[in-house]
Amino acid sequence: MQLKTPNRDERFLSLKGAVQINHSSFFVYEDKDGRKFLKTGEDEKLHKSLVQRMIDSNPHIARILKRFRIKPLIDTKTLNELTCGHMNETCNIAVGVYSLLSGDIKEQVDKAALKEASMLHDLGKVLIPSKILNKPSKLNIKERKIMNIHSTLGYELLKTQGVNEDVLNLIKYHHQNLKHTGYPALPTENTSSDIGVQIISIADKYSALREARVYRRRLSRTEALLILYREVREGKIMPAIYNALFKYAEIYDNQ
């Protein structure tokens, strides 16, 4: 794949995925001539234009927004913050957890799909109202329902771009769990995808717990791991995946 830094006047027609270079995440764009470019989340004008094209090319997105009475406003500032921080860190953790799993479990996971999905998993939040994303207190039932559609919105947005189906499914179901009590509902049981989903899910949650949020302080490594251990006890996360996270945190997250 030939990559180069684009000029401001070059046309971007589609988002083909994401890559990580030296622990930094980049979007991969393709222009009308099939040339590929790397961009961070900083170019808000570019991302707003692209997300609008995604919405226009998939009527199902408009139906979802209408059902929840959400105005189709594109929050690219949030996207930039996510790509520079949470989504990139989730990728680092997911890959770290994967690297510490046993060989028989690794064989059930597509590492490339796992890595790309973890970088794109929260893309749908560009359509979630900022007053919900940044609310400094607990979400009410209606707000929680709206927040929970971000994974489906991410799936629907990227479905228009020719992104790999395995990546799409990991994005859509990254808030699912081993007991299938998360969201959205899984159509069928799939042990292989369960493992990839669990890895991204626990990486996503650990990254979020270790960050300061408007509604709470940054939690310590021990506090975050104790919270996630509850999901092991509840049968939502495989002990092997939790143990890999524990080892990862012990090695790389000593703050």
Give the oligomer, counting copies of the same chain as homo and different chains as hetero: single chain
Mean pLDDT: 86
Global structural class:
alpha+beta
Q: What profile does the largest beta sheet have?
A: 4 strands, mixed
| Global morphology | globular
Q: Give the DSSP E fraction (strand runs of 2 or more residues).
A: 5-15%
From the alpha carbons, calculate the radius of gyration and give it in angstroms: 18 Å
N/C terminus separation: 38 Å
CATH superfamily: Hypothetical protein af1432
Query: What name is given to the CATH topology?
Result: Hypothetical protein af1432
Number of strands: 4
Residue ranges: pLDDT <50 for 5 or more in a row? Answer: 1-10
CATH class: Mainly Alpha
Number of structurally distinct domains? 1
Strand order of the largest sheet: 1-4-3-2
CATH-scheme architecture:
Orthogonal Bundle
Number of helices, where a helix is a run of at least 4 consecutive DSSP H or I residues: 13
Order of H and E elements: EEEEHHHHHHHHHHHHH
Brief rundown of the structure:
The chain is built from 13 helices and four strands. With 255 residues, it is of the alpha+beta class.
Describe the structure in your own words:
The chain is α+β, with helices and mostly antiparallel strands and 255 residues long. It has a single domain, classed as Hypothetical protein af1432 (Orthogonal Bundle), CATH 1.10.3210.10. It contains 13 helices and four strands. It has helices spanning 44-56, 59-67, 76-84, 86-99, 103-106, 111-120, 130-133, 141-147, 150-159, 165-172, 191-209, 221-233, 239-252, and strands at residues 3-4, 14-21, 24-30, 36-39. The chain has a four-stranded mixed sheet with strand order 1-4-3-2. Helix 4 (86-99) crosses helix 11 (191-209) and helix 9 (150-159) packs antiparallel against helix 10 (165-172). The termini are far apart. Residues 1-10 have low confidence and may be disordered.
